Amino acid sequence: MVKLTKIYTRTGDEGETGIGDGSRVSKIDARVAAYGTVDEANAFLGVAATACGAADSQIVAIITRIQNDLFDVGADLCTPRKPGEHVGDALRVTGHQTMWLESQIDELNADLGSLTSFVLPGGTPLAAHLHVARTVVRRAEREVVLLGEQIGRGNVAEPIRYLNRLSDLLFVMARFVNKADGGPGDVLWIPGGEREPGGDPQ
Q1: Element holding 18 (H helix, E strand)
Q2: 131-151: average pLDDT
Q3: Is the pTM higher than 0.70?
Q4: Which of 12, 23, 48, 152 has its CA 20 to 30 A from that of 32?
Q5: What percent of the chain is modeled with pLDDT above 90?
């Protein structure tokens, strides 16, 4: 149970913060950067949820579950693994959570056509917000990979898998909402499409 009784503590005024095992590290530590970017992605998902209309109840439900799971990801990244750690010793992301993302991808993608080009971020406001969240999740994934280079990839293997699948799901969700209810559909990249024929690409 989390209980917050005081919002400011002044303990971070020297540029350090406490992590899950009680130790203190710099606020620019790779671990802090990783779970901080996960928190940023969560905030952008909250913005996406505000763009959902009455017909988007399925999307709202998916976003709500993801936001909860991202707190699990943050808790996992915040807490260093101890030698001999057993299941239940600390809150960790599970393969089940990653598999749930895959099930949502399969369900939403079932009726979407194959792509013939890359998708430009945009379409409806909701799709645009989902694309922003997707790119922040990709950055979070890179931050976690960097952390893994420092502490051992095995220590962050499931968070990496989770974030990788999450970015895929957000891409599919954006396509799904752009198609739903007579939306604009995919906005596709046209390579070189804005150039004058035979013109200087500069």
Answers
A1: strand 16-18
A2: 96
A3: yes
A4: 48
A5: 51
Separation in Å, CA 180 to CA 55, 57, 112, 164, 176: 9, 12, 10, 25, 6
Q: How confident is the model at residue 4 (pLDDT cuts 50, 70, 90)?
A: low
Place of tokens 């976003």: 63
Q: Which residue has the tokens 């909860």?
A: 68
Q: Distance between CA 146 and CA 50 in Å, rounded?
A: 32
Please indicate whether residue 191 or residue 144 has the higher confidence score (pLDDT). Answer: 144
| Maximum average pLDDT range among 30-34, 169-173, 187-191 | 169-173
Q: Output b/e per residue, 148-173; b: 16+ Cβ within 10 A.
A: beeeeeebbebbbbbbbbbbbbbbbb
* CA 47 to centroid of chain Cα atoms: 13
| Nearest Cα to Cα of residue 140 among 155, 156, 127 | 156
Please name the CATH architecture into which domain 26-80+89-182 falls.
Up-down Bundle (1.20)
CA 96 to chain centre: 17
Enumerate the domain spans of the chain.
26-80+89-182
Residues 93 and 76: beta-carbon distance below 8 Å: yes
